[in-house]
Write a structure and sequence with these properties.
By secondary structure, the chain is an all-alpha fold. 76% of the residues lie in helices and 0% in strands.
Length: 408
């Protein structure tokens, strides 16, 4: 099946409306909740539950794989229902309750269960949420809509760790007590996100195509342009290892040269690119509306290549600071426009399911990407970054040849 024609939008969709803004608020609140605790979960596992490090990899691997594989299924269910909001509410609700589940965990399998529930929620909500954004925005400003959503999401990713650190400082007692209290408190912004979604987000069921997706989408259902785009996404993400390797690279350099960074400064470097994306994500989305998604995403991939090649050889404080700051440019130029391009290329009759296919391809590629990066890092610290840079250049070469909608 080739991509169907866009359903004409009403005049209200020629600007970013209340639904898109409300979805941004929802994501901001949920990211505050998630990022408050994300960096503390490994500490809880190792220091409180005395879990060996290899089990942490198992827990996170199962959790992330769940989210990746479920997104296309959730999108298909949303298309079958002709509704987006119910699955989104369920997904955000599961994310909210996962935090107190960790708070009451006494053994690591319970933490695994909580992380599974959290990622299950993310898998359920991502594709229907993006379909809501696309269906409540004219194609001519879709990049701005996704850019705004990504910026608000990133603001939550900045505020969450800061709020979590402040709470941990204010709470007295043992590490066990302080972390459990943090996990409980983190449920509050998560629940606020669910309430905001339920109260503020509106959808028009009649505009969706209930029953139009009798089966899960197959590769043959996707337009040729979308299939080529997913190939580009898969190739790029095979070289896009976990951001933890950037931290590891700076940490390794500091171990060799202790004067390079003081304790805690590396985490401030990590925050730099989130600030960049929060400030400029909306502008990048607008740029993709004006000049097309493809050149903006290619520029983001090019910045990624520069950063990774730079990380392979960086050795000074200034070099690391500039590279982390520049890395924010990669996220800024790709975070919203990549999703907008997926929405542009998806068949409107199967939009949520086909957007879910985009997320699934990303997730499937990221697991081997981090495994390969870990193997290469053991060979030499520069190897995973050289590999990631080469893969980014290959993705640019393929994406530059992609044909599709005018805004592609």
């Amino acid at each position: 099946m080739t991509a169907g024609a866009e359903t004409p939008v009403d005049p209200g969709k020629s600007r970013i409306g209340a639904t898109v803004i409300a979805l941004g608020v929802v994501s901001l609140l949920m990211d505050i909740s998630s990022e408050m605790v994300y960096t503390q979960i490994p500490i809880f596992l190792t220091q409180v539950l005395k879990v060996p490090a290899e089990l942490i990899g198992l827990i996170e691997g199962v959790a992330e794989s769940t989210a990746s594989l479920l997104r296309v299924v959730a999108g298909w269910i949303s298309d079958r229902m002709g509704r987006r909001k119910p699955l989104a509410v369920l997904g955000y609700g599961l994310g909210a309750i996962s935090k107190p589940m960790i708070a009451v965990s006494s053994v690591w399998p319970l933490v695994l269960g909580a992380r599974f529930v959290d990622r299950l929620g993310k898998g359920l909500r991502s594709a229907p949420r993006d379909a809501l954004i696309a269906e409540n925005t004219a194609e001519s400003i879709r990049g701005r809509a996704f850019g705004l959503h990504r910026s608000m999401d990133t603001i939550g990713a900045i505020l969450g760790p800061l709020l979590g650190a402040w709470i941990l400082i204010r709470i007295a007692g043992s590490v066990d007590h302080r972390l459990r209290m943090l996990f409980l408190i983190a449920a509050i912004p998560g629940l606020l996100a669910v309430l905001a979604l339920a109260a503020l987000v509106r959808e028009r069921p009649a505009e969706h195509h209930a029953g139009a997706a009798p089966r899960l989408p197959r590769l043959s259902d996707l337009s040729p342009a979308y299939r080529r785009y997913l190939l580009v996404v898969f190739l790029f993400n095979l070289g896009n290892s976990s951001d933890a390797f950037l931290i590891l690279r700076a940490t390794h350099a500091t171990a060799a040269h202790p004067a390079l960074f003081k304790p805690g400064e590396i985490l401030l470097l990590y925050a730099l690119f989130n600030v960049t994306e929060a400030l400029f994500g909306y502008m990048a989305g607008g740029l993709s509306d004006r000049i097309g998604r493809k050149p903006v995403v290619c520029a983001g991939y090019a910045i990624f290549a520069v950063v990774y090649f730079g990380m392979a050889v960086a050795g000074s404080r200034t070099a690391f600071a500039l590279l982390f700051l520049l890395y924010g440019g990669y996220y800024t130029l790709t975070g919203g426009p990549q999703r907008a391009l997926a929405a542009d290329l998806a068949d409107p009759k199967q939009r949520a399911a086909q957007i879910g296919a985009y997320y699934t391809v990303v997730g499937v590629a990221l697991l081997p990407a981090s495994l390969v990066a870990g193997w290469l890092f053991e060979i030499h610290i520069w190897a995973p970054f050289a590999y990631g840079g080469v893969m980014a250049l290959a993705a640019i070469a393929l994406l530059s040849r992609l044909s599709g909608p005018a805004k592609a």
